[in-house]
Amino acid sequence: MKKILIQLDTDEHPSTFDAIVAHDAGVDELLRYGSIEPDAVRPLVQSAFFTRGPKDLATLAVWVGGSSVGAGEEVLDQVEKAFFGPFRVSAMLDSNGCNTTAATTVARLAGVLDLQGRRVVIIGAGAVGLRAAKLLADEGCDVTVSGIPRARFGDKAYRRARGLTVAEERGMQIAEPADDDELAEALDGATLVLAAGPTGVEVLPAAVWQRVDAIEVLADFNAADPLGIEGTEAQDDLAERDGKRVLGALAIGGSKMKVHKACVRRLFESNDAILDVDGVYEIAKELA
Prior knowledge:
The structure is a single chain. By secondary structure, the protein is α/β, with parallel strands linked by helices. It has two domains: 4-93, Rossmann fold, CATH 3.40.50.10280; 101-252, NAD(P)-binding Rossmann-like Domain (Rossmann fold, 3-Layer(aba) Sandwich). It has helices spanning 16-24, 41-49, 69-81, 98-112, 127-138, 162-169, 180-187, 206-209, 249-267, 277-287, and strands spanning 4-9, 29-33, 60-65, 90-93, 119-123, 142-146, 173-175, 192-195, 217-220, 237-241, 244-247, 274-275. It has a seven-stranded mixed beta sheet, with helices on both faces. Strands 2-1-3-4-12 form a five-stranded parallel beta sheet, sandwiched between helices. Helix 5 links the parallel strand 5 and strand 6. It is elongated, with a radius of gyration of 20 Å.
């Protein structure tokens, strides 16, 4: 039987990136649906798995994507609610690449550092940053999630990032620096710093990170100009800069592609895998 992946995307047009990677990972047929709302999920999933007996359901799987992580989480929840008895299929959530990017980065770092007990600061409280924070905390790190300095917004009205509220609700330490001096204070004692700000926003000037002696490794999720960390290159693959090692976004991206494909293949090894951030991280560690 052919391996069929059902692509449920919360955006109007299903991601071509996700579709191409699915084909490259060996999927035989791809059924693509855009503008997916939670109410539409159950009939789509159930009408698919009713075509095959329970012993053949490992040939079907569901991929949930799109630019909105919150919407994707609601869709995945409805995918799981569609299951009953022996009728279930493997599914994965990777809206905006949040899980594969965070998991790949932490796995790369775990491969070169002993993470236990490290003080970590993540600048930027978006979906990738929060997932990286969760994984690093699980590895025994002392994690602080920092907002972007308010001064960086110039004359624009400052609005607290929703992710900081989420981090606070989850019991994480947070920092809300007003300027670069307060950001440097937040970084004091951190040996690992991740820049997880919005695309094209410099969140960590060179003048700040270069003066924090404790920092050993910097990682940047942003590949667009300007980079999230000034004075680094997107291609840096643990390259040494000013006495610190740098993991750039393109170096992360190369490993992320391998993890992404491995996750798609893993979906067809059984009919009961649910790959959210923890499941993706286990696969990323195998490949690191």
